[in-house]
Design a protein that fits this description.
This protein is an alpha+beta fold. The protein is built from 3 helices and 10 strands, in the order E-E-E-E-E-E-E-H-E-E-E-H-H. The chain has 2 domains: 32 residues; 132 residues, Alpha-Beta Complex (Nucleoside Triphosphate Pyrophosphohydrolase). The protein is globular, with a radius of gyration of 18 Å.
Length: 180
């Protein structure tokens, strides 16, 4: 399979591209959603011995979600992006940052690559809560390890981060009885 052409068909907060592909002599078109790449982190407060998540309304899911901290990588530096996002969203400065994994969120139609980290924090620099001009309205949710293992997670990057943490602690996630 080979990409023969790609052009923008819509440019707004996000972009859509028309991609022309060729496979075994046949040419066909697909649409591609361009949202940019993302950096995300599972944040652990070493003083309180709790994991910090963010809760915010996600218009595509049409509900509030509890997730790991994340943001769009706009300077081609995911490590610096996630440090900035942790401070903006939680108010904490990063003490330690460990790279976990990189993955595509939905490669069948979306170009987004997520750079996932584990971060340790211990001191607040500001109130957090996200940027007002971005309408983030972020609330912090803190959970101990046992609590987060029984939560019903709906966000893929958070599920991957929590699975990684469970494997690291050699424990299993417990299936909650909650439905979407």
């Amino acid at each position: 399979m080979e990409i023969k052409d790609k052009h923008t068909i819509y440019e707004g907060f996000y972009a859509f591209r028309k991609v022309v592909l060729e496979d075994k002599g046949e040419t066909f078109e697909r649409e591609q959603f361009e949202s940019g790449n993302a950096a995300a982190a599972l944040v652990y407060d070493t003083r309180e011995e709790q994991y910090i998540f963010v809760k915010q309304f996600r218009y595509s899911a049409e509900m509030e979600l509890v997730e790991v901290v994340a943001g769009v990588v706009d300077d081609s530096n995911p490590k610096e992006t996630i440090k900035k996002e942790i401070e903006e969203e939680t108010g904490y400065a990063v003490d330690k940052l460990e790279h976990v994994w990189d993955f595509f969120s939905s490669p069948g139609a979306c170009t987004e690559k997520v750079f996932l980290y584990y971060a340790e924090v211990s001191r607040k620099k500001n109130a957090g809560g996200g940027k007002d001009e971005a309408h983030e309205n972020i609330q912090l949710v803190t959970l101990e390890l046992e609590e987060l293992l029984t939560q019903k997670w709906y966000d893929a990057k958070t599920i991957i981060a929590v699975q990684w943490l469970a494997a690291r602690h050699q424990v299993f996630l417990k299936k909650p009885d909650v439905r979407l």
